[in-house]
Amino acid sequence: NAGVMQNPRHLVRRRGQEARLRCSPMKGHSHVYWYRQLPEEGLKFMVYLQKENIIDESGMPKERFSAEFPKEGPSILRIQQVVRGDSAAYFCASSPIRDRIGTEAFFGQGTRLTVV
Amino acid sequence: KQEVTQIPAALSVPEGENLVLNCSFTDSAIYNLQWFRQDPGKGLTSLLLIQSSQREQTSGRLNASLDKSSGRSTLYIAASQPGDSATYLCAVRQGPGNTPLVFGKGTRLSVIA
C-alpha cells in the first residue's frame, strides 16, 4: 500500500507563473489536507477536502490559491501568479473515513516550491 | 485559538543519553495529539498518536505522555542514537474525526556520536 504521493518533489517557478501541486492520498483514504511550511516555521493548515467537496478552507489565502479533489484523480493545489513569499514546502496529508475519535494523519514527502 | 509550543527549539546530546522533548498547548479541549519526525528536506513520519482519553503511548525506545488538563505532552527518547537526529513535531487535533491538525514549530534534535 503506497503512502501519500506528492509530485513534483521540487518545483521552480518564476514570479507571475502558475504552480500546480498534486497529491494522491493513501488507498482507502477519502480525506485530504494541505499544509504549508515556511522556512523556520511550523506547518500551517491550508485546506481540507473530500472527494468533490471543500470542507474547510479557513487557512487558504483569499487570493491566488485554490484547491480541488475531483472524483477521479489526485488533489490539486493551484497557486496563480506566484510571488517570492509563496516559496515554501507544501505537504499533503490523508486520513481514512471520518469516525468519532481523532484519526491518524499520514503525510506525503512534500513539494518544495521555489519562486525566483 | 489553539497554539502549540515546543521547547526547546533545538537540542544537542551525546549518543546514549535519554532525553525529553516538551510540547504544550493552550486549549486543553483536544481529541488527540500526534508526534511526528521530519528529516531535512523530507516529509513527516508519524511516531505516536495519543487519544485524549489516554495517558501515554509507547513504541520501541519512544514514549509519549499526555496530560490533557495541564495542556502538556512529552516525548521521551531512550538511549538516543545518531539516527534519531531530526526535527520532532507535535500536533493536536481540536475536534472529532478529521479536524485539521495544529502544529508546533518543532524541536531540532542532534545526537552526537
Major sheet details of chain A: 7 strands, mixed
Low-pLDDT ranges of chain B: none
Most extensive interface, chain pair and sizes: A-B, 32 and 28 residues
Residue share in helix of chain A: under 10%
**Silhouette of chain B:** globular
Kindly state the number of beta strands of chain B.
11
**What's the gyration radius of chain A in Å?**
14 Å
In round numbers, the mean pLDDT of chain A is 91
**C-alpha termini separation of chain B:** 41 Å
The rough form of chain A would be described as globular
**Helix content class of chain B:** under 10%
Notes on the structure:
The complex is a heterodimer of chains A (116) and B (113). By secondary structure, chain A is an all-beta fold. Chain A contains no helices and 11 strands. In chain A, the strands form 2 sheets. In chain A, strands 2, 4, 5, 6, 9, 10 and 11 form a 7-stranded mixed sheet that branches. Chain A has a 4-stranded antiparallel sheet with strand order 1-3-8-7, with no helix packed on it. Chain B is an all-beta fold and 113 residues long. Chain B has no helices and 11 strands. In chain B, 38% of the residues are buried. At the A-B interface, strand 4, strand 5, strand 9 and strand 10 of A face strand 4, strand 5, strand 9 and strand 10 of B.
